[in-house]
Amino acid sequence: MALKNLVGQKIMNEVLKSKKNGTDWRVLIVDRLSMRMVSACCKMHEIASEGITIVEDINKSREPLRDLEAVYLLTPTNDSVKPLIADFGCPGRTQYKAAHVYFTEACPEELFNELCKHISGKYIKTLKEINIAFLPYESQVFSLDFPDGFQCYYNQNKASQRTAAMERMAEQIATLCATLGEYPAVRYRADNERNIEFAQIVQHKLDGYKADEPTMGDGPEKSRSQLLIIDRGVDGVSPLLHELTLQAMAYDLLPIENDVYKYLNSGVEKDVLLDENDDQWKELRHQHIAVVSQNITKNLKTFVDSKKSLTAGDKSSIRDLSMMIKKMPQYQKELSNYSSLLNLAEDCMKKYQSEVSRLCKVEQDLAMGVDAEGEKVKDPMRLIVPLLLEENVSPMDKIRIILLYILSKNGISGENLTKLIQHAAIPDPERPIITNMTNLGFCVINEGGRRKQWCPNRKEREQTYQMSRWTPIIKDVMEDAIDDKLDGEHFPYLAGRAASTGARGIPTSARYGQWHKDRSQQNMKNVPRLIVFIVGGATFSEIRCAYEVTKAINTWEVIIGSTHIISPEEFLKDLKQLSE
Protein backbone atom coordinates (compact mmCIF):
# COMPACT_ATOMS: atom_id res chain seq x y z
CA MET A 1 0.00 0.00 0.00
CA ALA A 2 1.33 3.45 -0.92
CA LEU A 3 2.67 5.51 1.97
CA LYS A 4 0.06 8.24 1.52
CA ASN A 5 -2.83 5.76 1.55
CA LEU A 6 -1.43 4.01 4.59
CA VAL A 7 -1.05 7.22 6.60
CA GLY A 8 -4.41 8.58 5.43
CA GLN A 9 -6.09 5.37 6.53
CA LYS A 10 -4.41 5.57 9.93
CA ILE A 11 -5.44 9.21 10.47
CA MET A 12 -9.03 8.45 9.50
CA ASN A 13 -9.35 5.25 11.57
CA GLU A 14 -7.33 6.10 14.67
CA VAL A 15 -7.95 9.83 14.97
CA LEU A 16 -11.13 10.97 13.24
CA LYS A 17 -13.33 7.87 13.52
CA SER A 18 -12.24 6.50 16.87
CA LYS A 19 -14.08 9.00 19.11
CA LYS A 20 -16.85 10.09 16.78
CA ASN A 21 -19.96 10.70 18.84
CA GLY A 22 -23.11 10.39 16.76
CA THR A 23 -23.85 13.49 14.69
CA ASP A 24 -21.90 15.96 16.88
CA TRP A 25 -19.66 18.32 14.94
CA ARG A 26 -16.03 18.70 16.02
CA VAL A 27 -13.00 20.89 15.30
CA LEU A 28 -9.65 19.49 14.06
CA ILE A 29 -6.60 21.33 15.42
CA VAL A 30 -3.22 20.72 13.75
CA ASP A 31 0.35 22.05 13.78
CA ARG A 32 2.80 22.43 10.88
CA LEU A 33 3.73 18.75 10.44
CA SER A 34 0.25 17.31 11.05
CA MET A 35 -1.33 19.91 8.75
CA ARG A 36 0.96 18.78 5.95
CA MET A 37 0.22 15.13 6.76
CA VAL A 38 -3.54 15.69 6.65
CA SER A 39 -3.32 17.80 3.48
CA ALA A 40 -1.22 15.16 1.74
CA CYS A 41 -3.17 12.08 2.81
CA CYS A 42 -6.82 13.00 3.43
CA LYS A 43 -9.49 14.63 1.29
CA MET A 44 -11.59 17.41 2.78
CA HIS A 45 -14.89 15.66 2.05
CA GLU A 46 -13.62 12.56 3.93
CA ILE A 47 -12.73 14.71 6.92
CA ALA A 48 -16.09 16.50 6.84
CA SER A 49 -17.94 13.18 6.66
CA GLU A 50 -16.43 12.31 10.07
CA GLY A 51 -18.06 15.36 11.65
CA ILE A 52 -15.15 17.81 11.33
CA THR A 53 -16.58 21.27 10.70
CA ILE A 54 -13.29 23.19 10.48
CA VAL A 55 -9.52 22.54 10.45
CA GLU A 56 -7.39 25.12 12.27
CA ASP A 57 -3.71 25.79 12.97
CA ILE A 58 -2.89 25.64 16.68
CA ASN A 59 -0.34 28.44 16.35
CA LYS A 60 -2.80 30.92 14.87
CA SER A 61 -5.47 33.01 16.53
CA ARG A 62 -8.76 31.05 16.69
CA GLU A 63 -12.33 31.91 17.62
CA PRO A 64 -13.56 30.07 20.78
CA LEU A 65 -16.08 27.33 19.98
CA ARG A 66 -17.08 26.26 23.48
CA ASP A 67 -19.99 24.11 22.34
CA LEU A 68 -17.76 21.86 20.25
CA GLU A 69 -15.19 19.23 21.15
CA ALA A 70 -11.76 19.50 19.52
CA VAL A 71 -9.58 16.78 18.04
CA TYR A 72 -5.90 17.74 18.38
CA LEU A 73 -3.38 16.04 16.08
CA LEU A 74 -0.04 17.43 17.25
CA THR A 75 3.70 16.91 17.36
CA PRO A 76 4.68 16.51 21.05
CA THR A 77 6.89 19.61 21.20
CA ASN A 78 6.81 22.79 23.28
CA ASP A 79 5.63 24.79 20.27
CA SER A 80 2.48 22.67 20.01
CA VAL A 81 1.80 21.65 23.60
CA LYS A 82 1.93 25.19 25.05
CA PRO A 83 -0.94 26.46 22.86
CA LEU A 84 -2.90 23.31 23.79
CA ILE A 85 -2.43 24.12 27.48
CA ALA A 86 -3.46 27.71 26.82
CA ASP A 87 -6.70 26.54 25.18
CA PHE A 88 -7.84 25.00 28.49
CA GLY A 89 -5.78 27.02 30.96
CA CYS A 90 -8.64 29.19 32.18
CA PRO A 91 -11.59 27.18 33.63
CA GLY A 92 -14.92 28.54 32.44
CA ARG A 93 -13.29 30.30 29.49
CA THR A 94 -11.86 27.36 27.58
CA GLN A 95 -11.42 27.41 23.82
CA TYR A 96 -13.47 24.23 23.31
CA LYS A 97 -15.83 21.96 25.23
CA ALA A 98 -13.28 19.12 25.51
CA ALA A 99 -10.13 17.76 23.88
CA HIS A 100 -9.21 14.49 22.18
CA VAL A 101 -5.41 14.70 21.93
CA TYR A 102 -3.42 12.55 19.50
CA PHE A 103 0.36 12.93 19.44
CA THR A 104 2.26 12.00 16.28
CA GLU A 105 4.85 10.14 18.38
CA ALA A 106 5.95 9.41 21.96
CA CYS A 107 5.44 12.44 24.21
CA PRO A 108 8.53 13.31 26.31
CA GLU A 109 7.86 12.75 30.00
CA GLU A 110 8.45 16.38 31.02
CA LEU A 111 5.94 17.61 28.44
CA PHE A 112 3.43 14.96 29.47
CA ASN A 113 3.76 16.04 33.13
CA GLU A 114 3.39 19.68 32.12
CA LEU A 115 0.19 18.86 30.25
CA CYS A 116 -1.27 16.92 33.19
CA LYS A 117 -0.29 19.67 35.61
CA HIS A 118 -2.04 22.49 33.75
CA ILE A 119 -5.12 20.90 32.17
CA SER A 120 -7.83 19.34 34.27
CA GLY A 121 -8.58 15.71 33.41
CA LYS A 122 -12.22 16.58 32.89
CA TYR A 123 -11.32 18.41 29.66
CA ILE A 124 -9.03 15.76 28.11
CA LYS A 125 -11.19 12.85 27.01
CA THR A 126 -8.50 11.12 24.91
CA LEU A 127 -4.69 11.16 25.11
CA LYS A 128 -2.95 8.85 22.69
CA GLU A 129 0.16 8.40 20.52
CA ILE A 130 -0.49 7.30 16.93
CA ASN A 131 3.14 7.14 15.81
CA ILE A 132 3.10 8.84 12.43
CA ALA A 133 5.76 11.53 12.73
CA PHE A 134 6.74 11.78 9.07
CA LEU A 135 5.30 13.36 5.94
CA PRO A 136 4.39 10.91 3.15
CA TYR A 137 5.47 12.97 0.15
CA GLU A 138 4.75 10.36 -2.52
CA SER A 139 3.89 6.65 -2.69
CA GLN A 140 7.57 5.70 -2.10
CA VAL A 141 8.90 8.96 -0.65
CA PHE A 142 8.81 10.44 2.84
CA SER A 143 10.12 13.63 4.41
CA LEU A 144 10.70 14.47 8.06
CA ASP A 145 9.75 18.06 7.17
CA PHE A 146 12.87 19.09 9.10
CA PRO A 147 15.09 21.33 6.91
CA ASP A 148 16.95 22.46 10.06
CA GLY A 149 18.30 18.92 10.26
CA PHE A 150 20.87 19.91 7.61
CA GLN A 151 22.25 22.66 9.85
CA CYS A 152 22.18 20.54 13.01
CA TYR A 153 24.12 17.75 11.28
CA TYR A 154 26.71 19.74 9.32
CA ASN A 155 27.01 23.20 10.92
CA GLN A 156 29.66 23.35 13.65
CA ASN A 157 27.92 26.38 15.14
CA LYS A 158 24.87 24.18 15.78
CA ALA A 159 26.79 21.26 17.32
CA SER A 160 25.06 21.75 20.68
CA GLN A 161 21.70 21.00 19.00
CA ARG A 162 22.92 17.91 17.16
CA THR A 163 22.08 15.19 19.67
CA ALA A 164 18.55 16.47 20.21
CA ALA A 165 18.07 16.71 16.44
CA MET A 166 19.31 13.15 15.93
CA GLU A 167 16.96 11.89 18.66
CA ARG A 168 14.05 13.64 16.99
CA MET A 169 14.92 12.35 13.49
CA ALA A 170 15.45 8.83 14.81
CA GLU A 171 12.03 8.83 16.47
CA GLN A 172 10.44 10.01 13.22
CA ILE A 173 12.20 7.28 11.20
CA ALA A 174 11.13 4.67 13.76
CA THR A 175 7.48 5.71 13.36
CA LEU A 176 7.85 5.23 9.59
CA CYS A 177 9.18 1.69 10.11
CA ALA A 178 6.42 0.93 12.60
CA THR A 179 3.77 2.20 10.19
CA LEU A 180 5.20 -0.05 7.47
CA GLY A 181 5.45 -2.97 9.90
CA GLU A 182 9.21 -3.15 9.33
CA TYR A 183 12.02 -3.94 11.79
CA PRO A 184 14.90 -3.55 9.32
CA ALA A 185 18.57 -4.30 9.70
CA VAL A 186 20.31 -0.92 10.03
CA ARG A 187 23.27 0.01 7.82
CA TYR A 188 25.10 3.31 7.61
CA ARG A 189 27.71 5.11 5.50
CA ALA A 190 30.86 4.74 7.58
CA ASP A 191 32.84 7.50 5.81
CA ASN A 192 31.07 10.06 8.02
CA GLU A 193 31.65 9.10 11.66
CA ARG A 194 28.50 10.95 12.72
CA ASN A 195 26.40 8.34 10.94
CA ILE A 196 27.22 5.49 13.32
CA GLU A 197 26.01 7.53 16.31
CA PHE A 198 22.81 8.37 14.45
CA ALA A 199 22.32 4.75 13.34
CA GLN A 200 22.66 3.57 16.97
CA ILE A 201 20.01 6.05 18.10
CA VAL A 202 17.68 4.85 15.33
CA GLN A 203 18.30 1.24 16.37
CA HIS A 204 17.43 2.06 19.98
CA LYS A 205 14.14 3.63 18.88
CA LEU A 206 13.34 0.65 16.65
CA ASP A 207 14.02 -1.74 19.52
CA GLY A 208 11.50 0.16 21.64
CA TYR A 209 8.79 -0.19 19.00
CA LYS A 210 9.63 -3.87 18.52
CA ALA A 211 9.31 -4.45 22.27
CA ASP A 212 5.87 -2.82 22.24
CA GLU A 213 4.76 -4.72 19.11
CA PRO A 214 6.64 -8.07 18.93
CA THR A 215 5.22 -8.99 15.50
CA MET A 216 6.80 -5.93 13.88
CA GLY A 217 9.09 -7.13 11.08
CA ASP A 218 8.06 -10.79 11.35
CA GLY A 219 8.06 -12.95 8.26
CA PRO A 220 10.66 -14.30 5.86
CA GLU A 221 10.39 -11.33 3.48
CA LYS A 222 10.45 -8.60 6.11
CA SER A 223 13.45 -10.20 7.81
CA ARG A 224 15.48 -9.22 4.73
CA SER A 225 14.49 -5.52 4.88
CA GLN A 226 17.22 -2.93 5.36
CA LEU A 227 17.37 0.67 6.56
CA LEU A 228 20.32 2.49 4.99
CA ILE A 229 21.41 5.75 6.65
CA ILE A 230 23.39 8.01 4.33
CA ASP A 231 24.70 11.55 4.72
CA ARG A 232 24.58 14.18 1.97
CA GLY A 233 28.33 13.71 1.48
CA VAL A 234 27.67 10.50 -0.45
CA ASP A 235 27.04 12.50 -3.63
CA GLY A 236 27.71 16.20 -4.16
CA VAL A 237 27.13 16.10 -7.91
CA SER A 238 23.42 15.20 -8.09
CA PRO A 239 22.19 18.26 -6.13
CA LEU A 240 24.15 20.57 -8.48
CA LEU A 241 23.28 19.31 -11.97
CA HIS A 242 20.51 20.66 -14.18
CA GLU A 243 18.27 17.58 -14.46
CA LEU A 244 16.14 17.18 -17.59
CA THR A 245 13.39 14.85 -16.39
CA LEU A 246 10.10 16.70 -15.91
CA GLN A 247 9.71 16.80 -12.12
CA ALA A 248 13.34 17.58 -11.32
CA MET A 249 13.55 20.14 -14.12
CA ALA A 250 10.33 21.92 -13.14
CA TYR A 251 11.31 22.25 -9.47
CA ASP A 252 14.74 23.53 -10.50
CA LEU A 253 13.75 26.07 -13.14
CA LEU A 254 10.21 27.20 -12.27
CA PRO A 255 8.90 29.02 -9.15
CA ILE A 256 6.98 26.04 -7.73
CA GLU A 257 6.02 26.48 -4.07
CA ASN A 258 4.35 23.82 -1.92
CA ASP A 259 4.06 21.68 -5.07
CA VAL A 260 1.85 24.32 -6.75
CA TYR A 261 2.63 25.36 -10.32
CA LYS A 262 1.15 28.68 -11.47
CA TYR A 263 0.71 29.77 -15.06
CA LEU A 264 -1.30 32.23 -17.14
CA ASN A 265 -4.11 30.94 -19.34
CA SER A 266 -5.83 33.61 -21.48
CA GLY A 267 -4.62 36.23 -19.02
CA VAL A 268 -6.00 34.33 -16.00
CA GLU A 269 -3.62 32.85 -13.41
CA LYS A 270 -4.17 29.13 -12.87
CA ASP A 271 -2.91 27.02 -9.96
CA VAL A 272 -2.09 23.34 -10.41
CA LEU A 273 -1.14 20.98 -7.58
CA LEU A 274 1.54 18.56 -8.77
CA ASP A 275 0.74 15.40 -6.85
CA GLU A 276 -0.08 11.74 -7.33
CA ASN A 277 -3.84 12.31 -7.52
CA ASP A 278 -3.16 13.31 -11.12
CA ASP A 279 -2.47 10.12 -13.08
CA GLN A 280 -0.97 12.11 -15.95
CA TRP A 281 1.59 13.71 -13.62
CA LYS A 282 2.46 10.30 -12.16
CA GLU A 283 3.10 8.92 -15.64
CA LEU A 284 5.11 11.90 -16.92
CA ARG A 285 7.11 13.18 -13.93
CA HIS A 286 10.15 10.92 -14.46
CA GLN A 287 10.20 11.18 -18.25
CA HIS A 288 12.86 13.15 -20.11
CA ILE A 289 11.71 16.58 -21.27
CA ALA A 290 12.54 15.58 -24.88
CA VAL A 291 9.52 13.25 -24.98
CA VAL A 292 7.11 14.81 -22.45
CA SER A 293 5.18 17.16 -24.78
CA GLN A 294 4.94 14.44 -27.41
CA ASN A 295 3.55 11.98 -24.83
CA ILE A 296 1.05 14.50 -23.47
CA THR A 297 -0.26 15.02 -27.01
CA LYS A 298 -0.42 11.25 -27.60
CA ASN A 299 -2.28 10.67 -24.31
CA LEU A 300 -4.68 13.51 -25.10
CA LYS A 301 -5.48 12.01 -28.51
CA THR A 302 -6.10 8.62 -26.89
CA PHE A 303 -8.40 10.24 -24.32
CA VAL A 304 -10.45 12.17 -26.86
CA ASP A 305 -10.63 9.23 -29.29
CA SER A 306 -12.10 7.17 -26.45
CA LYS A 307 -15.11 9.52 -26.44
CA LYS A 308 -17.10 8.13 -29.34
CA SER A 309 -18.70 11.32 -30.59
CA LEU A 310 -15.46 13.29 -30.63
CA THR A 311 -12.38 13.45 -32.81
CA ALA A 312 -9.22 15.30 -31.88
CA GLY A 313 -7.14 15.01 -35.02
CA ASP A 314 -3.61 16.09 -34.15
CA LYS A 315 -4.56 19.10 -32.06
CA SER A 316 -1.84 19.71 -29.51
CA SER A 317 -1.35 23.43 -29.00
CA ILE A 318 -2.49 25.37 -25.94
CA ARG A 319 -5.01 27.26 -28.12
CA ASP A 320 -6.45 24.01 -29.53
CA LEU A 321 -6.80 22.61 -26.03
CA SER A 322 -8.63 25.74 -24.87
CA MET A 323 -11.10 25.37 -27.74
CA MET A 324 -11.67 21.71 -26.93
CA ILE A 325 -12.33 22.51 -23.25
CA LYS A 326 -15.05 24.97 -24.30
CA LYS A 327 -16.62 22.40 -26.63
CA MET A 328 -16.42 19.54 -24.10
CA PRO A 329 -17.50 20.99 -20.73
CA GLN A 330 -18.25 17.55 -19.31
CA TYR A 331 -14.55 16.67 -19.63
CA GLN A 332 -13.22 20.04 -18.50
CA LYS A 333 -11.25 18.68 -15.54
CA GLU A 334 -9.42 16.04 -17.59
CA LEU A 335 -8.65 18.42 -20.44
CA SER A 336 -7.46 21.12 -18.02
CA ASN A 337 -4.97 18.60 -16.62
CA TYR A 338 -3.55 18.00 -20.10
CA SER A 339 -3.45 21.76 -20.71
CA SER A 340 -1.63 22.52 -17.45
CA LEU A 341 0.98 19.79 -17.98
CA LEU A 342 1.57 20.96 -21.53
CA ASN A 343 2.10 24.48 -20.16
CA LEU A 344 4.50 23.09 -17.57
CA ALA A 345 6.53 21.23 -20.21
CA GLU A 346 6.60 24.28 -22.50
CA ASP A 347 7.75 26.54 -19.64
CA CYS A 348 10.55 24.08 -18.88
CA MET A 349 11.60 23.98 -22.53
CA LYS A 350 11.65 27.79 -22.78
CA LYS A 351 13.95 27.95 -19.75
CA TYR A 352 16.12 25.18 -21.18
CA GLN A 353 16.52 26.86 -24.55
CA SER A 354 17.16 30.35 -23.16
CA GLU A 355 19.30 29.59 -20.10
CA VAL A 356 20.22 25.97 -19.48
CA SER A 357 21.16 24.21 -22.73
CA ARG A 358 24.66 25.72 -22.85
CA LEU A 359 25.28 24.69 -19.22
CA CYS A 360 24.18 21.07 -19.47
CA LYS A 361 26.96 19.76 -21.71
CA VAL A 362 29.66 21.28 -19.51
CA GLU A 363 27.97 20.00 -16.33
CA GLN A 364 27.68 16.47 -17.73
CA ASP A 365 31.29 16.44 -18.93
CA LEU A 366 32.49 17.57 -15.47
CA ALA A 367 30.31 15.03 -13.67
CA MET A 368 31.25 12.09 -15.91
CA GLY A 369 34.91 13.00 -16.53
CA VAL A 370 34.34 12.13 -20.20
CA ASP A 371 32.50 13.83 -23.04
CA ALA A 372 29.48 12.49 -24.95
CA GLU A 373 31.78 10.48 -27.24
CA GLY A 374 33.47 8.82 -24.27
CA GLU A 375 36.72 10.78 -24.60
CA LYS A 376 38.36 11.84 -21.33
CA VAL A 377 38.01 15.55 -20.53
CA LYS A 378 41.65 16.62 -20.50
CA ASP A 379 41.30 20.30 -19.62
CA PRO A 380 38.05 21.00 -17.74
CA MET A 381 39.19 24.58 -17.03
CA ARG A 382 38.76 25.40 -20.74
CA LEU A 383 35.18 24.15 -20.51
CA ILE A 384 34.13 26.32 -17.61
CA VAL A 385 35.92 29.68 -18.10
CA PRO A 386 33.71 30.89 -21.00
CA LEU A 387 30.59 30.26 -18.91
CA LEU A 388 32.07 31.96 -15.84
CA LEU A 389 32.86 35.06 -17.89
CA GLU A 390 29.41 35.21 -19.49
CA GLU A 391 27.21 37.92 -17.97
CA ASN A 392 23.96 36.15 -18.88
CA VAL A 393 24.78 33.17 -16.63
CA SER A 394 23.44 33.76 -13.11
CA PRO A 395 25.81 33.74 -10.10
CA MET A 396 24.06 30.63 -8.72
CA ASP A 397 24.55 28.72 -11.98
CA LYS A 398 28.21 29.78 -11.97
CA ILE A 399 28.58 28.49 -8.42
CA ARG A 400 27.11 25.15 -9.54
CA ILE A 401 29.68 25.00 -12.35
CA ILE A 402 32.58 25.91 -10.01
CA LEU A 403 31.53 23.27 -7.47
CA LEU A 404 31.23 20.59 -10.15
CA TYR A 405 34.72 21.54 -11.37
CA ILE A 406 36.12 21.35 -7.82
CA LEU A 407 34.49 17.93 -7.23
CA SER A 408 35.86 16.64 -10.54
CA LYS A 409 39.39 17.67 -9.48
CA ASN A 410 39.02 16.50 -5.84
CA GLY A 411 39.79 20.03 -4.71
CA ILE A 412 41.89 22.84 -6.14
CA SER A 413 44.47 25.26 -4.78
CA GLY A 414 43.32 28.29 -2.81
CA GLU A 415 44.88 30.51 -5.47
CA ASN A 416 42.89 28.88 -8.28
CA LEU A 417 39.68 29.12 -6.25
CA THR A 418 40.21 32.85 -5.74
CA LYS A 419 40.76 33.30 -9.49
CA LEU A 420 37.62 31.35 -10.39
CA ILE A 421 35.51 33.39 -7.97
CA GLN A 422 36.91 36.62 -9.40
CA HIS A 423 36.41 35.55 -13.04
CA ALA A 424 32.82 34.58 -12.26
CA ALA A 425 32.20 37.79 -10.27
CA ILE A 426 30.57 35.83 -7.46
CA PRO A 427 29.12 38.31 -4.91
CA ASP A 428 30.82 38.25 -1.49
CA PRO A 429 27.75 36.98 0.43
CA GLU A 430 27.50 33.93 -1.87
CA ARG A 431 31.16 32.87 -1.75
CA PRO A 432 30.83 30.74 1.43
CA ILE A 433 28.51 28.40 -0.51
CA ILE A 434 31.60 27.06 -2.27
CA THR A 435 33.92 26.63 0.73
CA ASN A 436 31.13 25.25 2.93
CA MET A 437 31.07 22.07 0.84
CA THR A 438 33.92 20.97 3.10
CA ASN A 439 31.39 20.60 5.95
CA LEU A 440 29.83 17.72 3.99
CA GLY A 441 33.18 15.94 3.68
CA PHE A 442 34.19 17.12 0.21
CA CYS A 443 37.65 18.43 -0.57
CA VAL A 444 37.42 22.04 -1.79
CA ILE A 445 40.95 23.35 -1.26
CA ASN A 446 43.53 20.62 -1.83
CA GLU A 447 47.12 21.78 -1.55
CA GLY A 448 48.67 18.45 -0.56
CA GLY A 449 47.28 15.74 -2.78
CA ARG A 450 44.47 14.65 -0.47
CA ARG A 451 43.07 11.27 -1.47
CA LYS A 452 39.67 11.22 -3.19
CA GLN A 453 36.84 9.92 -1.04
CA TRP A 454 35.65 6.38 -1.68
CA CYS A 455 32.80 5.91 -4.13
CA PRO A 456 30.92 2.73 -5.10
CA ASN A 457 31.88 1.20 -8.43
CA ARG A 458 29.93 3.12 -11.07
CA LYS A 459 27.95 0.92 -13.44
CA GLU A 460 27.94 1.27 -17.19
CA ARG A 461 24.45 2.40 -18.17
CA GLU A 462 22.76 2.94 -21.50
CA GLN A 463 22.78 6.67 -22.28
CA THR A 464 19.85 7.82 -24.38
CA TYR A 465 20.43 11.54 -24.02
CA GLN A 466 23.82 13.30 -24.21
CA MET A 467 22.67 15.97 -21.75
CA SER A 468 21.55 13.37 -19.16
CA ARG A 469 24.46 10.95 -18.86
CA TRP A 470 24.93 11.19 -15.08
CA THR A 471 23.23 8.66 -12.80
CA PRO A 472 22.98 9.55 -9.08
CA ILE A 473 25.34 7.48 -6.93
CA ILE A 474 22.39 6.46 -4.77
CA LYS A 475 21.07 4.25 -7.60
CA ASP A 476 24.23 2.11 -7.55
CA VAL A 477 24.01 1.96 -3.75
CA MET A 478 20.36 0.84 -3.87
CA GLU A 479 21.05 -1.89 -6.44
CA ASP A 480 24.15 -3.14 -4.62
CA ALA A 481 22.30 -3.25 -1.26
CA ILE A 482 19.49 -5.34 -2.78
CA ASP A 483 21.95 -7.65 -4.58
CA ASP A 484 23.99 -8.04 -1.36
CA LYS A 485 27.00 -6.51 -3.12
CA LEU A 486 27.27 -3.26 -1.16
CA ASP A 487 30.73 -2.76 0.32
CA GLY A 488 30.58 -3.91 3.96
CA GLU A 489 33.48 -1.71 5.04
CA HIS A 490 31.95 1.53 3.81
CA PHE A 491 28.32 0.53 4.48
CA PRO A 492 28.47 -1.78 7.51
CA TYR A 493 25.54 -3.16 9.44
CA LEU A 494 25.22 -2.22 13.07
CA ALA A 495 26.78 -4.98 15.20
CA GLY A 496 24.52 -8.02 15.41
CA ARG A 497 21.90 -6.71 12.98
CA ALA A 498 22.80 -8.02 9.51
CA ALA A 499 19.84 -8.81 7.28
CA SER A 500 18.83 -12.45 7.60
CA THR A 501 16.63 -15.00 5.92
CA GLY A 502 14.80 -15.88 9.12
CA ALA A 503 12.97 -14.04 11.86
CA ARG A 504 15.05 -12.03 14.29
CA GLY A 505 14.95 -12.11 18.04
CA ILE A 506 12.71 -9.76 19.96
CA PRO A 507 14.51 -7.06 21.93
CA THR A 508 13.57 -6.74 25.57
CA SER A 509 14.06 -2.99 25.92
CA ALA A 510 10.89 -1.00 26.58
CA ARG A 511 10.16 2.53 25.44
CA TYR A 512 8.32 5.20 27.36
CA GLY A 513 4.72 5.46 26.21
CA GLN A 514 2.36 2.97 24.60
CA TRP A 515 2.34 1.99 20.96
CA HIS A 516 -1.06 1.41 19.40
CA LYS A 517 -1.15 -1.71 17.23
CA ASP A 518 -1.66 -0.99 13.58
CA ARG A 519 -4.36 -3.29 12.24
CA SER A 520 -3.85 -2.17 8.64
CA GLN A 521 -0.58 -4.07 8.24
CA GLN A 522 -2.33 -6.95 6.49
CA ASN A 523 -2.61 -4.65 3.45
CA MET A 524 1.14 -4.19 3.12
CA LYS A 525 3.24 -5.51 0.26
CA ASN A 526 4.77 -8.87 1.04
CA VAL A 527 8.22 -8.00 -0.27
CA PRO A 528 11.38 -6.90 1.54
CA ARG A 529 11.96 -3.16 1.65
CA LEU A 530 15.07 -1.09 1.27
CA ILE A 531 14.48 2.14 3.19
CA VAL A 532 17.07 4.77 2.28
CA PHE A 533 17.35 7.83 4.50
CA ILE A 534 19.55 10.76 3.45
CA VAL A 535 20.48 13.27 6.15
CA GLY A 536 20.44 16.72 4.58
CA GLY A 537 18.06 16.55 1.63
CA ALA A 538 17.03 14.18 -1.15
CA THR A 539 16.99 15.40 -4.75
CA PHE A 540 14.26 14.66 -7.26
CA SER A 541 16.73 12.69 -9.37
CA GLU A 542 17.47 10.45 -6.36
CA ILE A 543 13.74 10.07 -5.73
CA ARG A 544 13.33 8.93 -9.33
CA CYS A 545 15.97 6.25 -8.71
CA ALA A 546 13.84 4.66 -5.97
CA TYR A 547 10.99 4.14 -8.44
CA GLU A 548 13.32 2.93 -11.21
CA VAL A 549 15.03 0.34 -9.01
CA THR A 550 11.70 -0.90 -7.62
CA LYS A 551 10.30 -1.28 -11.13
CA ALA A 552 13.40 -3.00 -12.50
CA ILE A 553 13.84 -5.48 -9.63
CA ASN A 554 10.15 -5.99 -8.77
CA THR A 555 10.87 -8.31 -5.83
CA TRP A 556 11.87 -5.41 -3.54
CA GLU A 557 10.32 -2.05 -2.77
CA VAL A 558 12.62 0.94 -2.32
CA ILE A 559 11.40 3.72 -0.02
CA ILE A 560 13.47 6.90 0.02
CA GLY A 561 13.28 9.69 2.57
CA SER A 562 15.19 12.61 3.97
CA THR A 563 15.11 15.52 6.35
CA HIS A 564 13.59 17.45 3.42
CA ILE A 565 13.23 17.34 -0.36
CA ILE A 566 15.62 19.74 -2.12
CA SER A 567 16.02 21.52 -5.42
CA PRO A 568 19.50 22.78 -6.42
CA GLU A 569 18.55 26.28 -5.23
CA GLU A 570 17.55 24.94 -1.81
CA PHE A 571 20.78 22.93 -1.59
CA LEU A 572 22.87 26.05 -2.24
CA LYS A 573 20.83 27.98 0.33
CA ASP A 574 21.45 25.24 2.90
CA LEU A 575 25.19 25.40 2.15
CA LYS A 576 25.24 29.17 2.55
CA GLN A 577 23.64 28.95 6.00
CA LEU A 578 26.42 26.69 7.26
CA SER A 579 28.45 29.87 7.88
CA GLU A 580 25.76 31.48 9.99
Q: Your description of this structure?
A:
By secondary structure, the protein is of the alpha/beta class. Helices cover 43% and strands 14% of the residues. Strands 6-7-14-12-9-8 form a six-stranded mixed sheet, with helices on both faces. Helix 12 (318-327) packs antiparallel against helix 13 and helix 13 (332-368) packs across helix 15 (395-409). The longest helix has 37 residues, at 332-368. The radius of gyration is 26 Å and the shape is globular. 41% of the residues are buried.
Summarize it:
The chain is built from 20 helices and 15 strands.
Secondary structure elements and their pairing?
Blueprint: H1 3-16, E1 26-30, H2 32-41, H3 44-49, E2 52-57, E3 65-74, H4 78-87, E4 96-103, H5 109-118, E5 124-129, E6 135-138, E7 141-143, H6 148-154, H7 162-180, E8 185-188, H8 194-212, E9 226-231, H9 246-253, E10 260-265, E11 268-273, H10 279-284, H11 289-305, H12 318-327, H13 332-368, H14 380-389, H15 395-409, H16 414-424, H17 432-435, H18 473-482, E12 529-535, E13 538-539, H19 540-553, E14 557-562, E15 565-566, H20 568-577
Helix pairs in contact: 1-2, 7-8, 9-13, 11-13, 12-13, 13-14, 13-15, 14-15, 18-19
